[in-house]
Amino acid sequence: MSGNARFLWRRLSQFLPVILLATIVVFGLVQLIPGDPAVTLAGEFATKERIEEVRRLYGLDRPLMVQYGAWLWDALRGDLSQSLLSSKPVADLIIDRFPATLIVVVGAVLLSLAVGIPLGMAAATRARSRFDAAVMAFSSFGVALPSFWLAMVLVYWVALSWQLLPATGSVPFSSAPGDAIAHAILPAIALAAAGIAEVSRQVRSALIEVLASDYIRTLRAKGLRRWRILWQHGLKNIGVTLLTVVGLLINRLLGATVVIEAVFAIPGIGSLLVHAAINKDFAVVQGVVLVMVLIVICLNLIVDFLYAAIDPRVARG
Amino acid sequence: MSSNTQRPAAAIRRRQAMSYGLSGAGLAMLGLPGIAAPAAAQQAGVLRVSANVNPSTLDPATGRSGGDHQFLYPLYDTLVAWEPTTLEPRPGLAQSWTYKDASTVVLELRPGLTFHDGTPLDAEAVKFNLDRNRSDPKSNIKVDLAGVESVEATGPTTVTIKLKQADQSLPLILSDRAGMMASPTAIKAGGGSIDRVPVGAGPWKFARWDDNALVAYERNPTYWRKGIPKVDRLEMKVIPEVSTGVRSVIAGENDVVVAVPAIQKPLLDRSGKVKVFTTPSLYLYMIYLDFSKPPLNDVRVRRAINLAIDREVYSKVTMGGLGQPATTLFPKEYWAHDPALANIITYDPDKAKALLKEAGSPSVTFTGVAYTDQAAVQRQEVLMEMWRRVGINPKIHNASVPEASQAFFFNRTVNSMLAAITARPDPSMAPYTIFGKDSPYNGGHQEIPGMEAALAASRVGATPAARKEALSKVQRIALEQAVFVPLAFDVSIIALSNKYAGFQPNLLGRPRYEEIAAAG
């Protein structure tokens, strides 16, 4: 077995125990949420008898291990159970909601990279200049800026005052791509502010180190053009750093959509999770968190594979 | 009310231009032909409402939340209707009702009524619904019909309801969820459940429900009121963040926003793009007290708790001055309001201190539970500061609505609950709920001296004047015994786009949309 194959196998073999552990943690955490789902389901002024009836009806009176075992067995077969509130399959709810979240997250990632990389590169090539200081100040501001605040400022000016873009909602990309993109722009910008800052800072510091290395000096001495050194050799050599940042960025953005979806009334998985948590719809909370954990684990796996592809030394361990 | 400034067409064009441009870009990326129609054109004949909650169910019998009504009214007509500004009963599906004797009511239905699925809405259908509402294990409205002895279809369109005792409240009870008629065919086909596939006889038919996102309705072409509804399609978009809902209406993406907090009203007024309806409501913010346990089993302590509250300040701080300070069960605008009761628990901190001293301690502590939302926490903080000034120091924790109810009403682990009583169509329903000996929502879970007879009398009077007098007696007993703490009546704030007209606010604070039409 080659080094790369061994590396891949090692990573994949870690995959299942992590997922199993994640399901236990998710199930355990959900049980720790204060409150009784039977009380919520029975309504505001339900009697004790009605609550017990609801508890029996939804199987909430079974031992926790039995509930977990049944849920895991179904989840392994692709059945994430049904929403306690709507009786709809959780998998269907997630599939319905995920595209709205995805378009915003993808937009934010693209924006973070499209702005953050050139900004970081420009700062690195002018290290310790006024421009560099300005980029660093902007980055600090971007990291510190709460996304919901920026979202409301954007809505006030861009949507309400100038009326350039929609203030709320989302449209399925498949039915009206233009509307879908228009609805995703403001949320994506609000989410991307911190991403731009993070990417530009990481690119700058990694590139300053690379540009100071011997082989870059050699390339310069050979008379290679500045932009070629920067884009072809510099950028390639900060690939691992960039991949790490992108991986972390996507994970963080997935979490941050919970707030942004509330501000923009986007029916995505973030708002689905919030509503389910508030209403103690444990089945939905478990399903959504599990899917999010799976996405993060898969992303980390892809990043690991790309590490190995970019730098074979990683695979050799 | 705001001005009638129309939304600038240029703004719509700007958004459409952006959308067209992006459509082109998006399709180019996908390599797809054609271009999507602009959102505005797709929305013709559609009334878009920003609703603050997701319905708990679309079955009126199994509903679990007071927020459901706005989703139920489009689907279900009630046997009896009400006048929006007075809540007096008026004909609904039943064109008349007659008290044959004090405990027998005869309903005469309109002829030729049908449900959305074509099932006749006749006397048998009404009997089926009323029997289901008062006996089905899943029904959450059994208590509303607890006074009904039997229901009989005594003719094709005649229903005879026998009551356990003389009771004038039934007509208005039938204007609420208990009187919403659902198709027996659909209920039987659904194995007793129509939570997700509701079939009523209201102005709109059910189209779809995407949880926490959208409930959509389409015109019922066979609706018995000609020319109603005035809009073909109704879309209730669930936007729990009301400030987001407000922005969506100002931006022209929705046409109505409901349950607007007072603090958001100036934003709507300034926009010039909406008409803002600010209406008093029967919804009463109040504190439930467990008057059976120390220290609240002492009427002097309970009176001190009441007298320590400056309700003018409370209303100003927590409701932007738009709420109405409450010292009785009914607001000034309501026919059952009695101004003679207004001074029983007016603000008097010195007297509150004296009462505490008389009760044996200048400092009192009791436990309580309040809700977790920002406004509830603010209400709690204002009250605690007022109480602190006279020596009352409660320990209040916060919990979700069902959990708080469970802790106070059923587990009885706390002395008080800072909550509210929702608006009810008949004025006897609220006092029966919070003071009735057998009501699970009687905070003390015991009989209040003189209350049972007063409550029974409040449902017997044949004229509004007689009922008002009886209801005043009920309130006087409750206020003198200080078994509850009224705080303020909520104000219902609803904004409607200038593109529409015809909205009629009501005292229940529960919006109805069938009369709304495009502005001429």
UniProtKB/TrEMBL annotation, chain A:
<dbReference type="GO" id="GO:0071916">
    <property type="term" value="F:dipeptide transmembrane transporter activity"/>
</dbReference>
<keyword id="KW-1133">Transmembrane helix</keyword>
<keyword id="KW-1003">Cell membrane</keyword>
<keyword id="KW-0813">Transport</keyword>
<feature type="transmembrane region" description="Helical">
    <location>
        <begin position="288"/>
        <end position="310"/>
    </location>
</feature>
<feature type="transmembrane region" description="Helical">
    <location>
        <begin position="133"/>
        <end position="160"/>
    </location>
</feature>
<dbReference type="GO" id="GO:0005886">
    <property type="term" value="C:plasma membrane"/>
</dbReference>
<protein>
    <submittedName>
        <fullName>ABC transporter permease</fullName>
    </submittedName>
</protein>
<feature type="domain" description="ABC transmembrane type-1">
    <location>
        <begin position="98"/>
        <end position="303"/>
    </location>
</feature>
<feature type="transmembrane region" description="Helical">
    <location>
        <begin position="12"/>
        <end position="33"/>
    </location>
</feature>
<feature type="transmembrane region" description="Helical">
    <location>
        <begin position="98"/>
        <end position="121"/>
    </location>
</feature>
<feature type="transmembrane region" description="Helical">
    <location>
        <begin position="229"/>
        <end position="250"/>
    </location>
</feature>
<dbReference type="InterPro" id="IPR000515">
    <property type="entry name" value="MetI-like"/>
</dbReference>
<dbReference type="InterPro" id="IPR045621">
    <property type="entry name" value="BPD_transp_1_N"/>
</dbReference>
<feature type="transmembrane region" description="Helical">
    <location>
        <begin position="256"/>
        <end position="276"/>
    </location>
</feature>
<dbReference type="Pfam" id="PF00528">
    <property type="entry name" value="BPD_transp_1"/>
</dbReference>
<dbReference type="Pfam" id="PF19300">
    <property type="entry name" value="BPD_transp_1_N"/>
</dbReference>
<keyword id="KW-0812">Transmembrane</keyword>
<feature type="transmembrane region" description="Helical">
    <location>
        <begin position="180"/>
        <end position="199"/>
    </location>
</feature>
<keyword id="KW-0472">Membrane</keyword>
<dbReference type="InterPro" id="IPR035906">
    <property type="entry name" value="MetI-like_sf"/>
</dbReference>
<comment type="similarity">
    <text>Belongs to the binding-protein-dependent transport system permease family.</text>
</comment>
From TrEMBL, chain B:
<dbReference type="InterPro" id="IPR000914">
    <property type="entry name" value="SBP_5_dom"/>
</dbReference>
<dbReference type="Pfam" id="PF00496">
    <property type="entry name" value="SBP_bac_5"/>
</dbReference>
<feature type="domain" description="Solute-binding protein family 5">
    <location>
        <begin position="88"/>
        <end position="437"/>
    </location>
</feature>
<dbReference type="GO" id="GO:0043190">
    <property type="term" value="C:ATP-binding cassette (ABC) transporter complex"/>
</dbReference>
<dbReference type="GO" id="GO:1904680">
    <property type="term" value="F:peptide transmembrane transporter activity"/>
</dbReference>
<comment type="similarity">
    <text>Belongs to the bacterial solute-binding protein 5 family.</text>
</comment>
<protein>
    <submittedName>
        <fullName>Peptide ABC transporter</fullName>
    </submittedName>
</protein>
<dbReference type="InterPro" id="IPR006311">
    <property type="entry name" value="TAT_signal"/>
</dbReference>
<dbReference type="GO" id="GO:0030288">
    <property type="term" value="C:outer membrane-bounded periplasmic space"/>
</dbReference>
<dbReference type="InterPro" id="IPR039424">
    <property type="entry name" value="SBP_5"/>
</dbReference>
<dbReference type="InterPro" id="IPR030678">
    <property type="entry name" value="Peptide/Ni-bd"/>
</dbReference>
<dbReference type="GO" id="GO:0015833">
    <property type="term" value="P:peptide transport"/>
</dbReference>
